[in-house]
Write a structure and sequence with these properties.
CATH class of the largest domain: Alpha Beta
Strand order of the largest sheet: 3-2-4-1-5-6-7-8
Radius of gyration: 20 Å
Strand content: 15-25%
CATH architecture of the largest domain: 3-Layer(aba) Sandwich
Order of helices and strands: HEHEEEHEHEHEHHEH
């Protein structure tokens, strides 16, 4: 009887293990790369050679931005050229190539280890990736798009290490449903200037290092957060958590903007055509003609 129970239990464990491995494999598969040339790009966007990196959030990998990248490629507004994966041991693997002639090139970042209780490892790995892009591919300027904890890792890296001269400069950063201080939940938890009344240890570290932002003072940062059903949250990240970035960039980064997406939950903020169009416009939109 006991042998039979152990046999069934072992079979269940094997099935669950195989299912988990398959799930991880499927979610790490990036959308097919389609580099964009000057003759292919849509007339609706600007042509740049600045690469844009995409940072996924917790428990997601390539699947986080596959649809957005696919949309941009279908619209001929940008093209994926590379996927950079960080394996379980923190080793960086590059798939694809970044060329000087690529138009609006996209770089998809994936992590094998994405189920931790902190985004600090992702922040450190992102720093290594940026060092690699500068040293090997001569990237002097970059854009970054991050969802949820992916955006949190981007902000942490920028404030903690962005003044390193061995790193490329930030041109544009777009945050989608990104918590900055997760210790606040309601408006009464922060002062009028958005500084948390009882900042978390992580936020206190960001406050201490915020002067490092001077190295990227010319960056354009857009903080996009959602409101689900008219509430002060996207059902995962309270708006006030995202808005706590205000205090960190104040007086240093003048081109900081916030966008509220109504009727948008934490999943929709990076997976709907509405968000695809918004990010495309923020990254590659042509300047509005003067009246």
């Amino acid at each position: 009887m006991h042998r039979r129970i152990w046999t069934i239990a072992s079979a269940v464990i094997l099935v669950l293990g195989a299912s988990f491995v398959l799930f991880r494999k499927v979610t790490s598969i990036g959308v097919t790369a389609e580099p964009l040339t000057s003759s292919q790009v849509s007339a609706s966007v600007e042509k740049t050679h600045t690469p844009t990196i995409f940072m996924p959030g917790w428990a997601t990998s390539a699947n986080s931005f596959n649809s957005m990248i696919g949309y941009m490629q279908d619209q001929h507004t940008a093209g994926k050229v590379m996927r950079i994966n960080v394996d379980f041991f923190g080793r960086i693997h590059v798939f694809g190539q970044l060329r000087k002639t690529d138009i609006n090139p996209l770089i998809q970042i994936t992590f094998d280890h994405n189920l931790g209780n902190s985004y600090q490892p992702q922040a450190r790995w992102l720093n290594q990736i940026l060092l690699l892009l500068k040293k090997k591919y001569h990237v002097n300027e970059y854009n970054a798009v991050g969802h949820s904890w992916g955006g949190s890792a981007m902000v942490t890296q920028l404030i903690r290490d962005g003044n390193n001269k061995k790193l490329p400069k930030l041109h544009k950063m777009i945050l989608l449903g990104t918590p900055i201080d997760e210790g606040v939940d309601r408006a009464k938890d922060v002062y009028a200037n958005s500084k948390p009344k009882r900042p978390t240890r992580i936020y206190r570290r960001l406050m201490a290092d915020r002067t490092n932002l001077w190295a990227n003072k010319n960056a354009i940062i857009t903080n996009v957060y959602g409101s689900a059903n008219g509430e002060d949250t996207d059902n995962s990240v309270p708006i006030v958590q995202a808005q706590s970035l205000r205090y960190l960039v104040r007086g240093i980064v003048p081109s900081y903007h916030e966008i509220l997406m109504n009727k948008t939950n934490h999943h929709q903020i990076h997976t709907t055509v509405r968000s695809f169009k918004l990010v495309t416009k923020l990254l590659f939109g042509k300047p509005e003609p003067e009246p």
